[in-house]
């Protein structure tokens, strides 16, 4: 489902307006680093403000991309990076569609944000992604329920590059202490846990692959 978006990502909007907020987030980054699970802080456009070593390790096999690196903007990574399905298991339904819902909510709250508008323009370049955003997303939410689009508490599959972990599940824990929230930021932690495996021969897929057809969008007539 990933789409190779073109162009350069706009410069991040400075959400940390005051020296006090900047100092708080710098200290908060020390706290994030102390967590053993992948943990990161994002602003309203999903630019990554801080991330710990476990987050970096999770995405260590991801190849370069001009606009969608996980440590730059997590929303763009999920939607546009061709390597995303190699880390984010069940990519379309567990990660991509919920993130499209997050994009729609973010655009409703910040309709004039240039970074979010740039993501929206990149979506429009791909007919399947555009159809998923305009029609398929509403369809999917009606089928699975509103809870499926929530980040906090969601359990989603991961394909960890560490062979000692392999295929795992993560529970997303979303939190925003008062000062972090006032800075417009949110922290997400991926609490790793063992996933049920189909058998001892199962191995995580680490291949780059082209964008597959979106199952939430009807197959075009030949």
What's the gist of this structure?
With 222 residues, the protein is an alpha+beta fold. It has helices spanning 19-33, 53-58, 74-80, 91-109, 114-124, 127-144, 178-182, and strands at 39-42, 48-51, 155-159, 167-175, 186-194.
Counted beta strands? 5
In whole angstroms, how far apart are the ends? 20 Å
Report strand order across the widest sheet: 2-1-5-4-3
Number of DSSP helical runs: 7
Provide the gyration radius in Å: 17 Å
Helix content: 25-40%
Please state the structural category: alpha+beta
Mean pLDDT over the full residue set: 83
The major sheet is characterized as:
5 strands, antiparallel
Please trace the helix and strand order, writing H or E for each element.
HEEHHHHHEEHE
Shape: globular
Weakly predicted, low-confidence segments: 1-14, 199-213, 218-222
Tell me the β content. 5-15%
């Amino acid at each position: 489902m990933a789409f190779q978006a073109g162009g350069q990502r706009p410069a991040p909007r400075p959400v940390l307006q005051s020296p006090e907020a900047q100092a708080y987030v710098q200290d908060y980054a020390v706290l994030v680093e102390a967590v053993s699970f992948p943990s990161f802080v994002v602003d309203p456009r999903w630019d990554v403000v801080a991330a710990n070593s476990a987050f970096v390790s999770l995405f260590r096999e991801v190849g370069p991309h001009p606009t969608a690196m996980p440590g730059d903007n997590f929303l763009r990574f999920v939607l546009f990076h061709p390597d995303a399905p190699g880390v984010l298991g069940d990519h379309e339904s567990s990660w991509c569609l919920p993130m499209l819902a997050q994009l729609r909510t973010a655009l409703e709250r910040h309709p004039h944000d240039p970074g979010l508008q740039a993501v929206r323009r990149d979506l429009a370049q791909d007919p399947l992604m555009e159809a998923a955003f305009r029609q398929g997303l509403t369809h999917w939410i009606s089928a699975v329920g509103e809870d499926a689009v929530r980040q906090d508490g969601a359990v989603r599959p991961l394909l960890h590059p560490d062979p000692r972990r392999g295929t795992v599940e993560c529970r997303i824990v979303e939190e925003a202490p008062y000062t972090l929230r006032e800075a417009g930021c949110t922290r997400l932690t991926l609490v790793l846990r063992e996933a049920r495996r189909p058998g001892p021969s199962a191995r995580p897929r680490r291949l780059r692959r082209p964008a597959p057809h979106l199952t939430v969008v009807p197959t075009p007539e030949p």
